[in-house]
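Dear Dr. V.,

Thank you for agreeing to look over these. As mentioned in my earlier message, I'm a first-year student in the group and I'm still getting used to reading structure tokens, so any feedback on how I've presented them would be very welcome. I ran two proteins. I've put each sequence directly above its structure. The first is here:
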Amino acid sequence: MMNTDTVLRYYQSSLCFSTLLLIVEKIIFGSFSEYPNDLHMVMADWSKLPDDLLKVIAKRLNSAEDYASFGAVCKSWYSIFGDKECGRSGLKSPWLMLAEKKDSDFRQFYSPLTGKVYEIPVPEAAGKWSWGSPYGWLVTLSTHFDMSLLNPITGIHIPLPSLHACPHMNVPEKSQSNDIFIYKAVLSSSPSSPECAVVIIYSDYGRLALTKPGHRTWTLLESDYGPVEDIIYFDGSFLAVNMSWEVWMYDVSGSEMKTIRFAPAPLVHEIDEIEYEAKYLVEAGGEIYMVIRNLYDTARRDIPYMRTWTFSVMKLDMSSKRWEDVEDMEHSTFFLGNNHSFSTSASDYPEFRRNTIYFTDDYCGFLDIPRNFDMGIYNFHDTQIEHYPVGHEALSVFSAPLWIKPSFS
């Protein structure tokens, strides 16, 4: 695990403190403006600020960027994040975690909020596949099939059972860089919750397995209805969509897990030009959406080179359990790809465009070939795709770019 000194030294050398200082000045001099000169002298040593005042400042921070700057001042400021009220306040704007660079323990994170790229040491993720989540944690997998939960900002690492602990999975002894065994991993909540569960989609047959932090093995979930393409956590249960477009619910809250057919397949009009399609489930505003990502093969050789062409979206009528075509995503933004699919609202996250889909490449690891990633921003109104301003130069079959909501808890 990354130690505190390493984190502090790095943040002190690389992050801008302008936002932090403005917040400090507003809080301090807004209340004590009649003593500005004395306060400038007293507060020259920032480490001597009382904890109560630091907590007031920390509670007013609204972004991961501000949190990073705040914790970089000194150890006493960084230690304030140990307070539960301070460590979890405010909204955390999603970051794009870029692909790993060869022979480097540092990972780059792009923040659309500031338009900046932050480099943070994440040695625990080197040479591993990773999947992002809206809870600030990664699920990682090594070539020896050891798995863990990792907070890339704090370096906190929670081991999960090795896949070899489940004999019915038929796990190979060791994986090569282009041998994909796990296709996706999702969390039900932050690991700080005692109810946190992890579900993976594994093998070429799209099967499911579940575990929890502290457990010693994986529990296989029933998936006789066909290969699973995506899975999310919704209202106390996991929802999975299979290749036949059906949605099944896994209730894992009781002593016995229940599998229920949640929604039938929608009526789909086939498009001749489409060669491949990927399905995703997303929760937004308490509603369930199914997103279809249409892809085509641009290769002129025998090696597939898929690119996203367009998206279509359907919303589930919860009363009739029927799917309805969506012409407008209203005020939502979807984040799909190499992460637990999630959404944000334009009112909470104005830095992201409403009615758009931010997507990353979640199939690049199938082939061990050098190429750019298929990722970008899909505008639902004009059906145009805009490329991200960063992330195209680093190629890695181990860890493609992914979206994550950073967390300091």
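The second protein is here, in the same arrangement:
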Amino acid sequence: MDSTSAPSTTRSSVRGKCDPTWSRVLEEVNDGKSSFKCLYCGKVYKGGGINRMKRHLAGVKGDVESCRSVPYDVRFQMGENLKEIEIHASGGNLGRGNSIGPSRVSSKFNLGKRKVVCEMDKYFAPRTTLGAQLGIKSLLATKEAMKRVDMAIARFMYNACIPLNAVNSNYYQPMLNAIAFVGLGYMGPNYHALRVPLLKEAKREVQIITDNRQRTLINFLVYCSKGIIFIRSVDASDMVKDAIFLFNLFDEIVKWVGPENIVQLVTNNDVNYVAAERLLCGKYRNICWSPCTAHYLNLMLKDIGEMNHVVNLAKRASQITMYIYNHVYLLSWLRKRKGWEKLCVQAN
């Protein structure tokens, strides 16, 4: 029997290969063609090189399926490694032995003393993330110390009368992560910082959702088990918002989210929106449409407010309010009477 008829199989060693992905895959060479086996899920992929396996471990959708057995820390590390490769892509192609990973450490010299600046932290997931590896301080912390931290948070919330469902906010745990990262000695923002500069910064972050320039914006939000998530905002000021345009726009969003992930669509009850939703529900049988209740109530209250007796009542109530606020003695007297506290609110 000719020995060349059987495929020759060799297993390459990961030694000498500095990319961190090599320690998590096994390369097999059959007849000069390489195939890669994931050491976590056992799946084998032919071609694509080590970068394809890196996308497999990082959970990047595309030409390879995500690994469902990889630890969270490894997935986070592979994702950060891919981001750095994209940043350094302009510097040249990456060879098989090149290192773009956690082993990159830069050093500086200051006054004769060596100071090492390490970039490895960004390759590890936040320590408070579910499934992430705990830090040494967290492992050595006693139950009494953890209880003191919990009680400090609880006393603050009780004293400030903060609703307990505030801990379900998406910003609650990231806030604690940021404080833990800074460490001992961090002083929280004062009243002025929360009231002026930080409020302006937060306002700039959400200006994409709200617009004050009289533009027609169509905002898309998704409600799921995690809460309401903003997806996209479309400026439709210079577009004809007919049924066909709205149908194509909604269809694009549905395809991005995934028709199998959508149960119901809620829009206002304008004629064009109703016609567009009928076309969309005809294309996707599993999706149903419902009009927005808030939009219905706004239209009803607008019609009620245009009734003659309601207009007269609102006008007389406005005159009474103006009379009270223009007479300081009467305003002070009414604020002391039971039942008038909420009506006569002191203006700031």
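From my reading of the second output: Residues 308-325 form the longest helix (18 residues). Confidence is low (pLDDT under 50) at residues 1-16, 92-124. Does that match how you would interpret it?

Kind regards,
E.
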